[in-house]
Amino acid sequence: MKFFIDSGNVEDIREAGELGLLDGVTTNPSLIAKTGRKFEDVAQEICDLVPGPVSLEVVGLNWKEMVAEGKALRKYGDNVVVKIPITADGLKAIKALSSEGIPVNTTLIFQPLQALLAAKAGAAYVSPFIGRHDDIGQDGMLLVSEIVQIFDAYNFETEVLAASIRHPIHVLEAAKMGAHVATMPLKVIKQLVEHPLTDIGLKKFLEDWHSIKA
Ligand code: E4P
Questions:
Q1: What counts of helices (H) and strands (E) characterise the chain?
Q2: How far is the CA of 186 from the centre of ligand 1 (A)?
Q3: Where residue 73 sits, what CATH number does that domain have?
Q4: 7 lines ligand 1 (CB under 6 A)
């Protein structure tokens, strides 16, 4: 399973990269706005910092605008993946960009048929939003498993990118289902390594070690 960080914060991205497990980055307009910085600066810094795929989202709603924006976003690096929302115009843009070899991450996926359409249009990734589903009392993990099942049945090359991840259980369940990628904030990446019994065990080992008489 690949790990992406879901962030526009360059310092968080750098810190995640230092762990040696970072495969890529996803951003969205809200994450960029949260930085209080200019999109151009943030996008360039992230693309220079991370060798893996960096998803940058278009904001146009018309497919021709999306295609033009997507092509322009590639100036930040060859690692740019164009993030397109799943709408009828989005599908046309996915098809157009993908047929030119430009990778697309389809965002805001909330039901499995949206993922099927994006895969048929040639998307490199689909991003089912788990946490936002859970927020309204629906099962975000079920969405991921249904998409994985459909993609396996038809041997799609499109990767399932589990998104809107709020805690380690989302990562665990997505990994068990065979999602190809999980994108998560730095807080969740750090939580993956933690367990209170590890801390207690380590403390006890060190106490016992220091009690040994020379
Ligand atoms: C996906 O690429 C999105 O940027 C992201 O995962 C959305 O997460 P949120 O629901 O926590 O905003």
A1: 11, 8
A2: 13
A3: 3.20.20.70
A4: no
